[in-house]
Write a structure and sequence with these properties.
Two copies of one chain form a homodimer.
Chain A lengths: L2 H28 L6 H19 L2 H9 L5 H19 L2 H24 L2 H23 L4 H9 L5 H23 L13 H14 L9 E3 L5 E2 L6 E4 L6 H19 L16 H15 L3 H15 L7 H8 L13 H20 L7 H13 L24 H21 L3 H5 L5 H10 L9 H9 L6 H15 L2
Parallel strand pairs in A: 1-3
Antiparallel strand pairs in A: 2-3
Helix pairs in contact in A: 1-2, 1-3, 5-6, 6-7, 8-14, 8-20, 9-10, 10-11, 11-16, 12-13, 14-15, 14-16, 16-20
Chain lengths: 489, 489
């Protein structure tokens, strides 16, 4: 057996174990008995320790020295393996286990602090996590920028400088768009209650309409919607709220975007580094284009309006145009995950700037809340009323996920680029969407983006699909046109 | 940290991984998407390979040389670890992987052969598995009896000689009891259909009535009922058939017996070798005493009759006595898993004698079907009509599980001993059971057997609980009395 094949055999087994560990997470959020929490923590810990040991196994270094790539696919596999091995090898074992321990602790403290609206209770734990993650980033980056090393973990190849330029151009246009909408009459709202069983039935139809393959997946309810797994077993969750069926439907469509990416990767890459979405940004581009550019389009919402009338009767919306405005309603709010397309990126940009300043040391943890509240008031025009609506709202920093937030907005930028190219390639797409048929849209995404898995670098896969270097322009043009039409700007 | 503590830390992580691997099996039988089979096989393989490597990890040998047991519990832990390590270390890696490969292959061939009623198609695969398992047993047993080494895998300390004496004494009395019943009028049968939703609701009540803790477990449907997991997460499955609610209810009670054993083990033993049922025989003693001696007793079936009338209305049974006879109906049948209390052990004894002869070489695989059919005709008085009703009915041999069958009957023998002691300790137990209250019965079993987990050797835990060396006498006396009364013998 060649060194390359030996290496791939080892890596394939690691990927299989990683799928098992991921499914343990799915189980915990959907079907696990409540009393199993303590034991589950040990099971998670044992899997994490097995996976970590395999990822830094010195045999990988040996194989990498001698393995020969005979084609582009093999070269890409080796590139992924080398990157992951070298990153892992640079982090001392003691630091890795301190990070695991302190993030687990900080996560518990954060949850309690959020419940208690007590920022001060969280700050010492956050400070500890920040120090450890900075130390890790410095070990990886050497003399380069530690924040870039963090970012690289979620979005290989991206740099803070590049994203700052992109996001810097977005912010004023988004703030202006938001301000213009705020001066207009609010869009109509749904009235009535929407039985949960009917929501789940329609959510299943929506998942199928977007190409989700239930033969390689399943839909369950969970507290937070997520997609889990790669390859032949990619499961999603959603949630229901009798007052707010859109939360269920658009959570489902969002997760279906993530899940279809994983389901549609070339089967030759199954259980290899190429067999998973290439980055968080590209992943988010798929979930967001499914959810927003397709799922919240005038054409598709026209079809959805009919489906909802058939199932729920009258719910206070008179026309398909009103329904379109209702689905895309822009309203004041504190919470990122509940934000509309216009305001979502403003929430992300705030976090991106603050976490960069935390990592560089320009912002001290003790000044974080004030900085958050100042920036929020400046972009949104009103004040944060309590910490759970502000600096304590997101789980990410407690878990040490510095560098993760910007991938959300990068995903939206990528979705904008892909959407423009898709519309150019399929000019009559709205005829399909108006019938609830997404197959040409999702087929285009599958062919241009999803099937490649990790074969190309994140920016490259978007550039190849959209015909040029990614930029924020298409997203902003799309938002201004869409919301300009809805609000008569 | 002491060597003992280091050893236990390592073993604890292995036990946690083993729980994860087991839950992967649960997932596959209950919630896995159909298209995930291939990937799942790789995931199972990866977990098995991780677990195997840990079980033969040479560090265990080192720790065992120096670890000091400071109490009985530690001594028992070390005894289990040493036994498992020494067994695993005696089997060459190549042989272990050949067994994994060939049993997986033989299992597929068996399933097809059973569907095709084609014994000849299965025999070469069976022969290969038999040779490999014999080789493994010889590696473990050295100059001792290879069948005993197989048996020891499921029932530590048991020997074929001991079981042959026990089972030899059972066979004539069971054949005679069966013959006497056959001459009598058959017991009444259920009539009607029993909606599956109502069956599942009652099955849940039954599980709770027998002490199953849903905070550390859950009940799902699966093709075959099973119990899965140890400690804080012990799940069961059952099945429904609109014509046959007893199949659902008694499968549930049986699996609850297994599950309560795992749930009720002393929590100090969580994720250690003492934290699981000590042997297949003792496990089966719990499932069978729940199912039969308690669940099919005149007193408990009186309560169940009322529950079923409340839920299903009239189903053609006039009185509680008729219902008791119906639940305990003895009828001709080919299939072990569907057999009543009287005939079940005759099915097992047949397999025990045949598999011993296969392992010793006294019986050749090519003569197996004829030997099966002869023995069946002799004990049951009628002829096997097709291979799926005879030699191809069970999965065990295809999976290399030689030595497993006798633990079923040993479990019944143990249940007989425990039942006699339980009745002596709680003379008015029937008053409880007639109200559907099993708490004194299951509490006694929890205290006398279940909580000890792997602390005592299998025969010892039964002897301590029942006050003497286990023998077949109590089981046979119980069966003759119970069925004598039902059939007026």
């Amino acid at each position: 057996m060649s060194d390359y094949n030996e290496l791939m055999g080892f890596v394939r087994e690691t990927e299989a174990l990683s799928q098992v560990a991921g499914r343990l997470g799915w189980d915990q959020e959907t079907v696990m008995p409540g009393g199993a929490v303590e034991q589950r923590a040990e099971e998670h810990g044992a899997m994490a320790s097995v996976l970590h040991a395999r990822r830094i196994d010195p045999r990988i270094g040996g194989w990498l020295e001698t393995a020969v790539a005979e084609d582009d696919v093999a070269a890409a596999q080796i590139r992924h393996i080398r990157r992951s091995f070298e990153r892992a090898a640079k982090v001392p074992a003691q630091l890795a286990s301190a990070i695991a321990r302190e993030t687990s602790r900080a996560h518990r403290i954060w949850a309690q602090a959020r419940a208690d609206e007590d920022v001060a209770a969280f700050l010492p734990a956050l400070d500890k996590v920040l120090q450890l993650k900075r130390e890790e980033a410095q070990a990886i980056a050497g003399r380069a920028d530690p924040y870039d090393a963090m970012l690289d973990d979620y979005e290989p190849g991206a740099t803070a400088a590049q994203l700052s330029a992109m996001f810097g151009a977005m912010r004023p246009r988004l703030v202006a768009l938001r301000g213009a909408i705020r001066d207009k009459d609010p869009a109509p709202m749904l009235r009535g209650t929407f039985p949960e069983g009917e929501q789940m039935a329609l959510t299943r139809d929506l998942a199928l309409a977007f190409g989700y393959d239930l033969n390689n997946g399943r839909i369950d309810k969970a507290l937070h919607p997520f997609s889990s797994g790669s390859g032949l077993d990619v499961r999603i969750t959603t949630r229901t709220n009798v007052d707010d069926p859109f939360n269920c439907f658009y959570s489902t469509i969002h997760e279906v975007g993530h899940a279809c990416y994983e389901q549609n990767i070339d089967r030759d890459y199954l259980l290899t580094p190429l067999g998973a979405g290439v980055s968080m940004g590209v992943h988010e581009s798929q979930s967001r284009i499914y959810e927003n550019q397709i799922g919240r389009s005038r054409a598709f919402t026209g079809w959805l309006f009919g489906q909802m009338k058939d199932r729920f009767g009258d719910f206070g919306i008179a026309s398909a145009d009103d329904f379109f405005a209702c689905v895309n309603r822009v309203a004041d709010g504190f919470i990122r995950t509940e934000a509309d397309e216009v305001q979502y990126n403003l929430h992300v940009l705030l976090r991106f700037d603050l976490e960069q300043a935390l990592v560089s040391g320009d912002l001290l943890v003790r000044d974080l809340e004030a900085a958050w509240n100042d920036r929020f008031a400046s972009d949104f025009g009103f004040a944060v009323d309590k910490p759970s609506h502000g600096v304590l709202q997101d789980v990410h920093w407690s878990e040490g996920l510095f560098g993760y937030f910007p991938t959300y907005s990068l995903g939206n930028v990528y979705a904008g680029c892909l959407h423009t190219a898709l519309r150019a390639d399929v000019p009559d797409l709205d005829d399909d969407l108006a019938r609830g048929d997404t197959s040409r849209a999702t087929g285009w995404l599958s062919d241009k983006v999803q099937r490649h898995g990790g074969l190309y670098a994140p920016r490259d896969v978007i550039a190849r699909a959209s015909g040029g270097a990614p930029s924020e322009g298409p997203l902003l043009d799309y938002l201004e046109a869409k919301f300009g039409a809805i609000y008569g700007l």
